[in-house]
Amino acid sequence: MDFSHILNSKKLTLSVVLSVFLSLFACKSFAIQSENETVKEKNAKEEVFNPTTAILEHIGDSHYWHVGGELSFPLPVIIFTDGGLETFSAAEFHHGEAAYQGKYHTYKLVEDKIRVVDANGAVDKEASHHIYDFSITKNVVALWIAGILLLVIFFAVAGGYKKRTGKAPKGLQSFIEPIILFVRDEIARPNIGYRYQKYMPILLTIFFFIWMNNLLGLIPIFPGGANVTGNIMLTFMLSFVVMLIVNFSANKYYWKHIFMPDVPLWLYPIMIPVELIGVISKPFALMIRLYANISAGHIIVLSLISLIFIFKSLWTSVVSVPFVVFMDVLELLVAFLQAFIFTMLTALFIGTAVEEHHH
Amino acid sequence: MEELFDGLLNDHLGFVVWSAVAFLILVILLGKFAWKPIMSAINERERSIEDALLKAEAAKEEMARLTNENESLLKQARAERDLILKEARHMKDQIIAEAKEAAHAEGARMIEKATIEINSQKAIAIADVKNQVANLSIDIAEKLLRKQFENQREQDQLVADLLKEVKVN
Protein backbone atom coordinates (compact mmCIF):
# COMPACT_ATOMS: atom_id res chain seq x y z
CA MET A 1 0.00 0.00 0.00
CA ASP A 2 1.30 3.47 -0.84
CA PHE A 3 1.09 5.96 1.96
CA SER A 4 3.58 8.41 0.46
CA HIS A 5 0.82 10.89 -0.41
CA ILE A 6 0.29 11.47 3.32
CA LEU A 7 3.87 12.57 3.75
CA ASN A 8 3.80 14.59 0.54
CA SER A 9 0.59 16.41 1.37
CA LYS A 10 1.90 17.56 4.72
CA LYS A 11 5.26 18.51 3.26
CA LEU A 12 6.81 16.11 5.71
CA THR A 13 9.80 15.22 3.66
CA LEU A 14 12.54 12.92 4.73
CA SER A 15 14.81 15.84 5.57
CA VAL A 16 12.29 17.18 8.09
CA VAL A 17 12.10 13.81 9.78
CA LEU A 18 15.86 13.53 9.83
CA SER A 19 16.35 17.01 11.19
CA VAL A 20 14.00 16.24 14.09
CA PHE A 21 15.99 13.14 14.90
CA LEU A 22 19.25 15.04 14.64
CA SER A 23 17.99 17.75 16.95
CA LEU A 24 17.15 15.05 19.45
CA PHE A 25 20.74 13.87 19.29
CA ALA A 26 21.76 17.41 20.05
CA CYS A 27 19.36 17.51 22.98
CA LYS A 28 20.81 14.32 24.31
CA SER A 29 24.38 15.46 24.10
CA PHE A 30 23.39 18.75 25.69
CA ALA A 31 21.67 16.94 28.51
CA ILE A 32 24.65 14.70 29.00
CA GLN A 33 26.98 17.68 29.10
CA SER A 34 24.92 19.63 31.57
CA GLU A 35 24.34 16.74 33.91
CA ASN A 36 27.64 15.08 33.30
CA GLU A 37 28.33 14.23 36.86
CA THR A 38 24.91 12.95 37.92
CA VAL A 39 24.45 10.85 34.77
CA LYS A 40 27.75 9.16 35.27
CA GLU A 41 26.82 8.35 38.83
CA LYS A 42 23.41 7.06 37.77
CA ASN A 43 24.80 4.95 34.96
CA ALA A 44 27.06 3.24 37.38
CA LYS A 45 24.10 2.15 39.49
CA GLU A 46 21.35 1.84 36.85
CA GLU A 47 21.31 -0.79 34.17
CA VAL A 48 21.89 0.61 30.73
CA PHE A 49 18.70 0.39 28.66
CA ASN A 50 19.04 -2.47 26.22
CA PRO A 51 16.31 -2.28 23.55
CA THR A 52 16.90 -5.84 22.34
CA THR A 53 16.23 -7.47 25.69
CA ALA A 54 13.36 -5.10 26.40
CA ILE A 55 11.67 -5.88 23.08
CA LEU A 56 12.25 -9.62 23.30
CA GLU A 57 10.86 -9.55 26.83
CA HIS A 58 7.73 -7.82 25.55
CA ILE A 59 7.06 -10.15 22.67
CA GLY A 60 8.01 -13.26 24.60
CA ASP A 61 6.07 -15.38 27.02
CA SER A 62 6.30 -14.85 30.77
CA HIS A 63 5.37 -16.35 34.11
CA TYR A 64 4.11 -12.92 35.18
CA TRP A 65 1.50 -10.68 33.66
CA HIS A 66 3.03 -7.25 33.86
CA VAL A 67 0.22 -4.71 34.08
CA GLY A 68 2.16 -1.50 34.53
CA GLY A 69 4.74 0.14 36.76
CA GLU A 70 5.62 -2.19 39.61
CA LEU A 71 2.31 -4.06 39.35
CA SER A 72 2.43 -7.54 37.89
CA PHE A 73 0.46 -10.70 38.54
CA PRO A 74 2.38 -13.89 39.25
CA LEU A 75 0.87 -16.83 37.34
CA PRO A 76 0.66 -20.46 38.41
CA VAL A 77 3.62 -22.70 37.64
CA ILE A 78 3.01 -26.32 36.69
CA ILE A 79 6.03 -28.52 35.98
CA PHE A 80 6.24 -32.16 35.02
CA THR A 81 9.47 -33.35 36.52
CA ASP A 82 11.08 -36.76 36.48
CA GLY A 83 9.81 -37.08 40.04
CA GLY A 84 6.23 -36.00 39.42
CA LEU A 85 3.93 -32.99 39.11
CA GLU A 86 4.99 -29.77 40.81
CA THR A 87 2.68 -26.75 41.20
CA PHE A 88 3.34 -23.42 42.90
CA SER A 89 2.92 -19.70 42.25
CA ALA A 90 5.42 -17.76 40.18
CA ALA A 91 5.44 -15.27 43.05
CA GLU A 92 7.88 -17.67 44.77
CA PHE A 93 10.56 -16.64 42.28
CA HIS A 94 10.38 -12.97 43.36
CA HIS A 95 10.82 -11.83 39.76
CA GLY A 96 13.62 -14.26 39.12
CA GLU A 97 15.71 -13.12 42.05
CA ALA A 98 15.00 -16.05 44.33
CA ALA A 99 15.20 -19.79 43.81
CA TYR A 100 12.26 -21.94 44.89
CA GLN A 101 12.77 -25.19 46.76
CA GLY A 102 10.20 -27.59 45.32
CA LYS A 103 9.40 -31.17 46.25
CA TYR A 104 11.87 -32.69 43.80
CA HIS A 105 14.27 -29.91 42.75
CA THR A 106 15.19 -26.34 43.36
CA TYR A 107 13.98 -24.05 40.56
CA LYS A 108 15.01 -20.62 39.39
CA LEU A 109 13.81 -18.31 36.62
CA VAL A 110 16.52 -17.68 34.03
CA GLU A 111 15.33 -15.21 31.38
CA ASP A 112 11.78 -16.12 32.43
CA LYS A 113 12.45 -19.80 31.81
CA ILE A 114 12.37 -22.35 34.60
CA ARG A 115 15.68 -24.07 35.24
CA VAL A 116 16.78 -26.53 37.86
CA VAL A 117 19.60 -25.16 40.01
CA ASP A 118 21.93 -26.99 42.33
CA ALA A 119 22.72 -26.04 45.91
CA ASN A 120 25.16 -23.35 44.79
CA GLY A 121 22.57 -21.63 42.62
CA ALA A 122 24.16 -22.68 39.32
CA VAL A 123 21.93 -23.99 36.52
CA ASP A 124 21.92 -27.80 36.28
CA LYS A 125 21.55 -28.32 32.53
CA GLU A 126 21.17 -32.06 32.73
CA ALA A 127 18.35 -31.91 35.27
CA SER A 128 16.69 -29.05 33.38
CA HIS A 129 16.29 -31.32 30.39
CA HIS A 130 14.05 -33.61 32.39
CA ILE A 131 11.46 -31.06 33.39
CA TYR A 132 8.57 -29.93 31.21
CA ASP A 133 7.05 -26.53 31.83
CA PHE A 134 3.24 -26.71 31.62
CA SER A 135 2.72 -23.42 33.47
CA ILE A 136 -0.28 -21.19 32.93
CA THR A 137 1.84 -18.47 31.37
CA LYS A 138 0.85 -15.02 30.14
CA ASN A 139 0.17 -16.39 26.65
CA VAL A 140 -2.01 -19.19 28.00
CA VAL A 141 -4.09 -16.69 29.99
CA ALA A 142 -4.30 -14.39 26.96
CA LEU A 143 -5.44 -17.38 24.92
CA TRP A 144 -8.15 -18.11 27.45
CA ILE A 145 -9.29 -14.50 27.44
CA ALA A 146 -9.51 -14.56 23.65
CA GLY A 147 -11.33 -17.89 23.77
CA ILE A 148 -13.84 -16.65 26.34
CA LEU A 149 -14.40 -13.48 24.30
CA LEU A 150 -15.00 -15.57 21.19
CA LEU A 151 -17.42 -17.84 23.03
CA VAL A 152 -19.32 -14.88 24.51
CA ILE A 153 -19.51 -13.06 21.16
CA PHE A 154 -20.56 -16.02 19.06
CA PHE A 155 -22.97 -17.50 21.57
CA ALA A 156 -24.64 -14.08 21.64
CA VAL A 157 -24.71 -14.02 17.84
CA ALA A 158 -26.09 -17.56 17.70
CA GLY A 159 -28.73 -16.48 20.24
CA GLY A 160 -29.62 -13.60 17.95
CA TYR A 161 -30.29 -16.06 15.14
CA LYS A 162 -32.47 -18.17 17.41
CA LYS A 163 -34.40 -15.13 18.61
CA ARG A 164 -34.94 -13.59 15.18
CA THR A 165 -35.39 -16.71 13.10
CA GLY A 166 -35.68 -15.80 9.45
CA LYS A 167 -35.56 -12.08 10.21
CA ALA A 168 -32.93 -9.44 9.41
CA PRO A 169 -29.86 -9.47 11.71
CA LYS A 170 -29.57 -6.85 14.44
CA GLY A 171 -26.78 -5.35 16.57
CA LEU A 172 -23.69 -7.55 17.02
CA GLN A 173 -25.28 -10.14 14.76
CA SER A 174 -25.39 -7.70 11.85
CA PHE A 175 -21.73 -6.82 12.43
CA ILE A 176 -20.58 -10.45 12.50
CA GLU A 177 -22.78 -11.82 9.72
CA PRO A 178 -21.01 -10.05 6.82
CA ILE A 179 -17.68 -11.40 8.12
CA ILE A 180 -19.07 -14.93 8.31
CA LEU A 181 -20.46 -14.51 4.81
CA PHE A 182 -17.08 -13.16 3.70
CA VAL A 183 -15.38 -16.31 5.02
CA ARG A 184 -17.98 -18.45 3.29
CA ASP A 185 -18.21 -16.63 -0.05
CA GLU A 186 -14.64 -15.36 -0.49
CA ILE A 187 -12.60 -18.01 1.30
CA ALA A 188 -14.39 -21.36 1.57
CA ARG A 189 -16.57 -21.59 -1.53
CA PRO A 190 -14.11 -20.44 -4.21
CA ASN A 191 -11.22 -22.53 -2.82
CA ILE A 192 -12.89 -25.73 -1.68
CA GLY A 193 -15.84 -25.98 -4.03
CA TYR A 194 -19.22 -27.49 -3.37
CA ARG A 195 -17.96 -29.50 -0.36
CA TYR A 196 -17.14 -26.30 1.55
CA GLN A 197 -19.90 -26.73 4.12
CA LYS A 198 -18.05 -29.48 5.98
CA TYR A 199 -15.02 -27.23 6.54
CA MET A 200 -16.88 -24.06 7.50
CA PRO A 201 -16.67 -24.62 11.30
CA ILE A 202 -12.88 -25.11 11.33
CA LEU A 203 -12.28 -22.24 8.87
CA LEU A 204 -14.48 -19.87 10.85
CA THR A 205 -12.81 -20.88 14.10
CA ILE A 206 -9.31 -20.42 12.66
CA PHE A 207 -10.24 -17.06 11.16
CA PHE A 208 -11.86 -15.56 14.25
CA PHE A 209 -9.31 -17.17 16.60
CA ILE A 210 -6.38 -15.58 14.76
CA TRP A 211 -8.15 -12.27 14.28
CA MET A 212 -9.22 -12.00 17.90
CA ASN A 213 -5.71 -12.85 19.17
CA ASN A 214 -4.15 -10.41 16.70
CA LEU A 215 -6.45 -7.64 17.88
CA LEU A 216 -5.92 -8.38 21.57
CA GLY A 217 -2.16 -8.37 20.89
CA LEU A 218 -2.48 -4.79 19.64
CA ILE A 219 -3.95 -3.56 22.92
CA PRO A 220 -0.97 -2.53 25.04
CA ILE A 221 -2.74 -2.86 28.41
CA PHE A 222 -4.52 -5.73 30.18
CA PRO A 223 -6.39 -7.82 28.89
CA GLY A 224 -4.35 -7.38 25.72
CA GLY A 225 -0.62 -7.01 25.42
CA ALA A 226 0.30 -10.65 25.06
CA ASN A 227 1.89 -11.65 21.78
CA VAL A 228 -0.08 -14.85 21.21
CA THR A 229 -0.24 -15.06 17.41
CA GLY A 230 3.34 -13.75 17.23
CA ASN A 231 4.42 -16.83 19.15
CA ILE A 232 5.82 -19.50 16.89
CA MET A 233 4.54 -22.24 19.21
CA LEU A 234 0.96 -21.13 18.67
CA THR A 235 1.37 -20.76 14.91
CA PHE A 236 3.02 -24.20 14.93
CA MET A 237 -0.02 -25.63 16.71
CA LEU A 238 -2.40 -23.97 14.21
CA SER A 239 -0.50 -25.07 11.14
CA PHE A 240 -0.14 -28.57 12.58
CA VAL A 241 -3.93 -28.71 12.90
CA VAL A 242 -4.20 -27.47 9.30
CA MET A 243 -1.74 -30.14 8.14
CA LEU A 244 -3.76 -32.86 9.87
CA ILE A 245 -7.04 -31.62 8.39
CA VAL A 246 -5.63 -31.31 4.88
CA ASN A 247 -4.03 -34.77 4.87
CA PHE A 248 -6.91 -36.55 6.55
CA SER A 249 -9.48 -35.09 4.15
CA ALA A 250 -7.30 -35.78 1.09
CA ASN A 251 -8.76 -38.09 -1.55
CA LYS A 252 -7.01 -40.66 -3.75
CA TYR A 253 -6.21 -38.09 -6.45
CA TYR A 254 -4.18 -36.11 -3.94
CA TRP A 255 -2.17 -39.18 -2.88
CA LYS A 256 -1.78 -40.30 -6.47
CA HIS A 257 -0.40 -36.87 -7.28
CA ILE A 258 2.22 -37.35 -4.54
CA PHE A 259 3.19 -41.00 -4.99
CA MET A 260 2.39 -41.58 -8.66
CA PRO A 261 2.76 -38.22 -10.43
CA ASP A 262 2.24 -38.05 -14.18
CA VAL A 263 5.95 -37.90 -14.98
CA PRO A 264 8.40 -40.40 -16.49
CA LEU A 265 9.39 -43.14 -14.09
CA TRP A 266 13.03 -42.08 -13.81
CA LEU A 267 11.86 -38.74 -12.34
CA TYR A 268 10.16 -40.45 -9.39
CA PRO A 269 13.22 -40.35 -7.10
CA ILE A 270 13.14 -36.57 -7.44
CA MET A 271 9.40 -35.97 -7.63
CA ILE A 272 8.24 -38.01 -4.65
CA PRO A 273 10.60 -36.38 -2.12
CA VAL A 274 9.71 -32.96 -3.54
CA GLU A 275 6.00 -33.68 -3.18
CA LEU A 276 6.51 -35.03 0.33
CA ILE A 277 8.44 -31.90 1.28
CA GLY A 278 5.52 -29.94 -0.16
CA VAL A 279 3.16 -31.63 2.30
CA ILE A 280 5.26 -30.26 5.17
CA SER A 281 6.36 -26.98 3.65
CA LYS A 282 2.86 -25.65 3.00
CA PRO A 283 1.83 -25.63 6.68
CA PHE A 284 5.40 -24.62 7.58
CA ALA A 285 5.00 -21.49 5.45
CA LEU A 286 1.69 -20.80 7.21
CA MET A 287 3.43 -21.06 10.57
CA ILE A 288 6.29 -18.72 9.64
CA ARG A 289 4.09 -16.20 7.84
CA LEU A 290 1.72 -15.55 10.72
CA TYR A 291 4.48 -15.61 13.33
CA ALA A 292 6.77 -13.28 11.39
CA ASN A 293 4.09 -10.78 10.42
CA ILE A 294 2.67 -10.33 13.89
CA SER A 295 6.07 -10.36 15.61
CA ALA A 296 7.46 -7.85 13.13
CA GLY A 297 4.59 -5.47 13.82
CA HIS A 298 5.14 -5.74 17.55
CA ILE A 299 8.90 -5.27 17.18
CA ILE A 300 8.46 -2.12 15.06
CA VAL A 301 6.05 -0.57 17.54
CA LEU A 302 8.29 -1.48 20.48
CA SER A 303 11.38 -0.16 18.65
CA LEU A 304 9.70 3.17 18.02
CA ILE A 305 8.76 3.39 21.71
CA SER A 306 12.31 2.33 22.66
CA LEU A 307 13.67 5.37 20.83
CA ILE A 308 12.33 7.49 23.66
CA PHE A 309 14.42 5.51 26.15
CA ILE A 310 17.47 5.34 23.88
CA PHE A 311 17.53 9.11 23.44
CA LYS A 312 16.48 9.62 27.08
CA SER A 313 14.34 12.54 25.97
CA LEU A 314 10.58 12.94 26.22
CA TRP A 315 10.70 14.99 23.02
CA THR A 316 11.40 11.89 21.01
CA SER A 317 7.77 10.96 21.56
CA VAL A 318 6.79 13.84 19.26
CA VAL A 319 8.22 11.76 16.44
CA SER A 320 7.81 8.22 17.65
CA VAL A 321 4.23 8.42 18.93
CA PRO A 322 2.74 9.48 15.57
CA PHE A 323 4.76 6.70 13.95
CA VAL A 324 3.50 4.24 16.56
CA VAL A 325 -0.09 5.36 15.90
CA PHE A 326 0.50 4.93 12.17
CA MET A 327 1.99 1.47 12.75
CA ASP A 328 -0.89 0.50 15.04
CA VAL A 329 -3.41 1.45 12.37
CA LEU A 330 -1.39 -0.53 9.86
CA GLU A 331 -1.28 -3.44 12.31
CA LEU A 332 -5.06 -3.26 12.58
CA LEU A 333 -5.14 -3.96 8.86
CA VAL A 334 -2.44 -6.63 9.17
CA ALA A 335 -4.40 -8.31 11.99
CA PHE A 336 -7.31 -8.85 9.64
CA LEU A 337 -5.12 -9.55 6.63
CA GLN A 338 -3.09 -12.30 8.31
CA ALA A 339 -6.23 -13.98 9.67
CA PHE A 340 -7.65 -13.80 6.14
CA ILE A 341 -4.49 -15.14 4.48
CA PHE A 342 -4.09 -17.98 6.96
CA THR A 343 -7.71 -19.03 6.52
CA MET A 344 -7.60 -18.62 2.77
CA LEU A 345 -4.46 -20.71 2.36
CA THR A 346 -5.97 -23.34 4.66
CA ALA A 347 -9.04 -23.42 2.42
CA LEU A 348 -6.80 -23.56 -0.65
CA PHE A 349 -4.84 -26.54 0.73
CA ILE A 350 -8.05 -28.33 1.66
CA GLY A 351 -9.36 -27.49 -1.81
CA THR A 352 -6.38 -29.11 -3.53
CA ALA A 353 -6.69 -32.14 -1.24
CA VAL A 354 -10.37 -32.77 -1.95
CA GLU A 355 -10.33 -31.74 -5.61
CA GLU A 356 -11.69 -34.29 -8.08
CA HIS A 357 -9.48 -34.79 -11.13
CA HIS A 358 -10.84 -35.86 -14.46
CA HIS A 359 -7.89 -36.87 -16.54
CA MET B 1 22.47 -24.13 16.77
CA GLU B 2 22.33 -26.42 19.75
CA GLU B 3 22.18 -23.37 21.97
CA LEU B 4 19.16 -22.08 20.01
CA PHE B 5 17.20 -25.30 20.44
CA ASP B 6 18.36 -25.90 24.00
CA GLY B 7 15.34 -26.44 26.19
CA LEU B 8 12.94 -25.63 23.35
CA LEU B 9 10.73 -28.63 24.05
CA ASN B 10 11.06 -28.31 27.84
CA ASP B 11 10.03 -24.67 27.83
CA HIS B 12 7.46 -24.57 25.05
CA LEU B 13 5.77 -27.97 24.84
CA GLY B 14 3.44 -26.81 27.61
CA PHE B 15 2.21 -23.83 25.62
CA VAL B 16 1.71 -25.94 22.50
CA VAL B 17 -0.39 -28.40 24.50
CA TRP B 18 -2.35 -25.67 26.29
CA SER B 19 -3.05 -23.81 23.07
CA ALA B 20 -4.04 -27.01 21.29
CA VAL B 21 -6.44 -27.85 24.12
CA ALA B 22 -7.87 -24.32 24.09
CA PHE B 23 -8.21 -24.38 20.30
CA LEU B 24 -9.84 -27.81 20.33
CA ILE B 25 -12.34 -26.74 22.98
CA LEU B 26 -13.09 -23.63 20.92
CA VAL B 27 -13.59 -25.65 17.75
CA ILE B 28 -15.95 -28.06 19.52
CA LEU B 29 -17.94 -25.46 21.47
CA LEU B 30 -18.16 -22.92 18.66
CA GLY B 31 -18.86 -25.65 16.12
CA LYS B 32 -21.71 -27.07 18.14
CA PHE B 33 -23.27 -23.96 19.65
CA ALA B 34 -22.30 -21.16 17.28
CA TRP B 35 -21.35 -22.15 13.74
CA LYS B 36 -23.97 -24.85 13.35
CA PRO B 37 -26.98 -22.70 14.33
CA ILE B 38 -25.53 -19.61 12.65
CA MET B 39 -24.77 -21.31 9.34
CA SER B 40 -28.06 -23.16 9.29
CA ALA B 41 -29.93 -19.95 10.14
CA ILE B 42 -28.12 -18.04 7.39
CA ASN B 43 -28.74 -20.82 4.87
CA GLU B 44 -32.35 -21.10 5.96
CA ARG B 45 -32.86 -17.39 5.61
CA GLU B 46 -31.18 -17.27 2.22
CA ARG B 47 -33.36 -20.11 1.06
CA SER B 48 -36.49 -18.43 2.35
CA ILE B 49 -35.53 -15.14 0.68
CA GLU B 50 -34.92 -16.95 -2.60
CA ASP B 51 -38.22 -18.77 -2.16
CA ALA B 52 -40.01 -15.51 -1.49
CA LEU B 53 -38.46 -13.92 -4.55
CA LEU B 54 -39.44 -16.87 -6.72
CA LYS B 55 -42.95 -16.79 -5.29
CA ALA B 56 -43.22 -13.06 -5.91
CA GLU B 57 -42.13 -13.65 -9.50
CA ALA B 58 -44.70 -16.43 -9.86
CA ALA B 59 -47.39 -14.24 -8.31
CA LYS B 60 -46.50 -11.49 -10.75
CA GLU B 61 -46.81 -13.88 -13.66
CA GLU B 62 -50.07 -15.23 -12.30
CA MET B 63 -51.32 -11.69 -11.92
CA ALA B 64 -50.40 -10.89 -15.50
CA ARG B 65 -52.07 -14.07 -16.64
CA LEU B 66 -55.22 -13.20 -14.70
CA THR B 67 -55.25 -9.69 -16.08
CA ASN B 68 -54.88 -11.08 -19.57
CA GLU B 69 -57.64 -13.55 -18.97
CA ASN B 70 -59.86 -10.84 -17.56
CA GLU B 71 -59.24 -8.67 -20.56
CA SER B 72 -60.02 -11.46 -22.98
CA LEU B 73 -63.11 -12.31 -20.99
CA LEU B 74 -64.17 -8.68 -21.07
CA LYS B 75 -63.55 -8.54 -24.78
CA GLN B 76 -65.54 -11.70 -25.29
CA ALA B 77 -68.36 -10.38 -23.13
CA ARG B 78 -68.39 -7.15 -25.03
CA ALA B 79 -68.54 -9.01 -28.34
CA GLU B 80 -71.32 -11.19 -27.02
CA ARG B 81 -73.22 -8.19 -25.84
CA ASP B 82 -72.83 -6.57 -29.23
CA LEU B 83 -74.05 -9.73 -30.88
CA ILE B 84 -77.04 -9.97 -28.58
CA LEU B 85 -77.90 -6.33 -29.16
CA LYS B 86 -77.61 -6.83 -32.89
CA GLU B 87 -79.80 -9.87 -32.77
CA ALA B 88 -82.31 -8.05 -30.62
CA ARG B 89 -82.37 -5.17 -33.01
CA HIS B 90 -82.81 -7.55 -35.88
CA MET B 91 -85.60 -9.36 -34.08
CA LYS B 92 -87.27 -6.10 -33.21
CA ASP B 93 -87.20 -5.03 -36.81
CA GLN B 94 -88.53 -8.38 -37.87
CA ILE B 95 -91.31 -8.29 -35.32
CA ILE B 96 -92.24 -4.80 -36.32
CA ALA B 97 -92.24 -5.77 -39.93
CA GLU B 98 -94.27 -8.86 -39.26
CA ALA B 99 -96.70 -6.89 -37.15
CA LYS B 100 -97.03 -4.32 -39.87
CA GLU B 101 -97.68 -7.00 -42.45
CA ALA B 102 -100.19 -8.72 -40.22
CA ALA B 103 -101.90 -5.40 -39.61
CA HIS B 104 -101.99 -4.73 -43.29
CA ALA B 105 -103.44 -8.13 -44.01
CA GLU B 106 -106.02 -7.81 -41.26
CA GLY B 107 -106.94 -4.35 -42.43
CA ALA B 108 -107.33 -5.56 -45.98
CA ARG B 109 -109.37 -8.50 -44.81
CA MET B 110 -111.57 -6.28 -42.69
CA ILE B 111 -112.00 -3.82 -45.50
CA GLU B 112 -112.93 -6.65 -47.81
CA LYS B 113 -115.36 -8.00 -45.29
CA ALA B 114 -116.82 -4.57 -44.81
CA THR B 115 -117.10 -4.11 -48.55
CA ILE B 116 -118.89 -7.41 -48.89
CA GLU B 117 -121.14 -6.52 -45.98
CA ILE B 118 -121.78 -3.12 -47.43
CA ASN B 119 -122.52 -4.62 -50.81
CA SER B 120 -124.89 -7.18 -49.38
CA GLN B 121 -126.56 -4.54 -47.26
CA LYS B 122 -126.75 -2.34 -50.31
CA ALA B 123 -128.31 -5.16 -52.32
CA ILE B 124 -130.78 -5.85 -49.51
CA ALA B 125 -131.51 -2.14 -49.27
CA ILE B 126 -131.88 -1.82 -53.03
CA ALA B 127 -134.14 -4.88 -53.13
CA ASP B 128 -136.17 -3.40 -50.35
CA VAL B 129 -136.29 -0.09 -52.14
CA LYS B 130 -137.29 -1.92 -55.35
CA ASN B 131 -140.06 -3.69 -53.51
CA GLN B 132 -141.26 -0.52 -51.96
CA VAL B 133 -140.97 1.30 -55.26
CA ALA B 134 -142.87 -1.55 -56.92
CA ASN B 135 -145.48 -1.52 -54.27
CA LEU B 136 -145.64 2.22 -54.45
CA SER B 137 -145.82 2.15 -58.24
CA ILE B 138 -148.54 -0.45 -58.11
CA ASP B 139 -150.33 1.60 -55.50
CA ILE B 140 -149.95 4.68 -57.62
CA ALA B 141 -150.90 2.86 -60.71
CA GLU B 142 -153.93 1.38 -58.97
CA LYS B 143 -154.86 4.72 -57.67
CA LEU B 144 -154.31 6.24 -61.08
CA LEU B 145 -156.21 3.59 -62.83
CA ARG B 146 -159.01 3.87 -60.35
CA LYS B 147 -159.03 7.52 -60.98
CA GLN B 148 -158.94 7.12 -64.78
CA PHE B 149 -161.55 4.46 -64.94
CA GLU B 150 -164.00 6.32 -62.80
CA ASN B 151 -165.88 7.37 -65.81
CA GLN B 152 -167.06 4.96 -68.59
CA ARG B 153 -166.24 7.12 -71.53
CA GLU B 154 -162.64 7.29 -70.72
CA GLN B 155 -162.58 3.49 -70.41
CA ASP B 156 -164.17 3.09 -73.71
CA GLN B 157 -161.81 5.58 -75.17
CA LEU B 158 -158.83 3.63 -73.88
CA VAL B 159 -160.14 0.37 -75.17
CA ALA B 160 -160.72 2.00 -78.46
CA ASP B 161 -157.16 3.41 -78.48
CA LEU B 162 -155.75 0.10 -77.59
CA LEU B 163 -157.66 -1.58 -80.21
CA LYS B 164 -156.51 0.99 -82.71
CA GLU B 165 -152.96 0.40 -81.83
CA VAL B 166 -153.43 -3.34 -82.30
CA LYS B 167 -154.89 -2.69 -85.72
CA VAL B 168 -151.95 -0.61 -86.75
CA ASN B 169 -149.67 -3.36 -85.84
Automatic annotation (TrEMBL), chain A:
Protein's organism: Mucilaginibacter agri
Keyword vocabulary terms for this entry: ATP synthesis, Cell membrane, CF(0), Hydrogen ion transport, Ion transport, Membrane, Transmembrane, Transmembrane helix, Transport
Predominant location: membrane
Function in brief: Key component of the proton channel; it plays a direct role in the translocation of protons across the membrane.
MF terms (GO), sorted A to Z: proton-transporting ATP synthase activity, rotational mechanism
InterPro entries for the chain: ATP_synth_F0_asu, ATP_synth_F0_asu_bact/mt, F0_ATP_A_sf
Protein name, UniProt field: ATP synthase subunit a
Gene (name only): atpB
Membrane topology listed for this record: Multi-pass membrane protein
TrEMBL record, chain B:
Keyword Signal among UniProt keywords: no
Major subcellular site: membrane
Subcellular localization: Cell membrane; Endomembrane system
TM helices/strands, residue ranges: 12-35
Mode of membrane association: Single-pass membrane protein
Gene3D superfamilies, per the entry: F1F0 ATP synthase subunit B, membrane domain
SUPFAM superfamilies with a match to the protein in the record: F1F0 ATP synthase subunit B, membrane domain
InterPro entries: ATP_synth_B-like_membr_sf, ATP_synth_b/b'su_bac/chlpt, ATP_synth_F0_bsu_bac, ATP_synthase_B_chain
Any one GO molecular-function label of the UniProt entry: proton-transporting ATP synthase activity, rotational mechanism
Coiled-coil regions, chain positions: 42-94
A cellular component annotation (GO) from this entry: endomembrane system
UniProtKB keywords: ATP synthesis, Cell membrane, CF(0), Coiled coil, Hydrogen ion transport, Ion transport, Membrane, Transmembrane, Transmembrane helix, Transport
SUBUNIT field: F-type ATPases have 2 components, F(1) - the catalytic core - and F(0) - the membrane proton channel. F(1) has five subunits: alpha(3), beta(3), gamma(1), delta(1), epsilon(1). F(0) has three main subunits: a(1), b(2) and c(10-14). The alpha and beta chains form an alternating ring which encloses part of the gamma chain. F(1) is attached to F(0) by a central stalk formed by the gamma and epsilon chains, while a peripheral stalk is formed by the delta and b chains. F-type ATPases have 2 components, F(1) - the catalytic core - and F(0) - the membrane proton channel. F(1) has five subunits: alpha(3), beta(3), gamma(1), delta(1), epsilon(1). F(0) has four main subunits: a(1), b(2) and c(10-14). The alpha and beta chains form an alternating ring which encloses part of the gamma chain. F(1) is attached to F(0) by a central stalk formed by the gamma and epsilon chains, while a peripheral stalk is formed by the delta and b chains.
Family designation: Belongs to the ATPase B chain family.
Main function: Component of the F(0) channel, it forms part of the peripheral stalk, linking F(1) to F(0). The b'-subunit is a diverged and duplicated form of b found in plants and photosynthetic bacteria. F(1)F(0) ATP synthase produces ATP from ADP in the presence of a proton or sodium gradient. F-type ATPases consist of two structural domains, F(1) containing the extramembraneous catalytic core and F(0) containing the membrane proton channel, linked together by a central stalk and a peripheral stalk. During catalysis, ATP synthesis in the catalytic domain of F(1) is coupled via a rotary mechanism of the central stalk subunits to proton translocation.
Name of the protein: ATP synthase subunit b
Annotated organism of origin: Mucilaginibacter agri
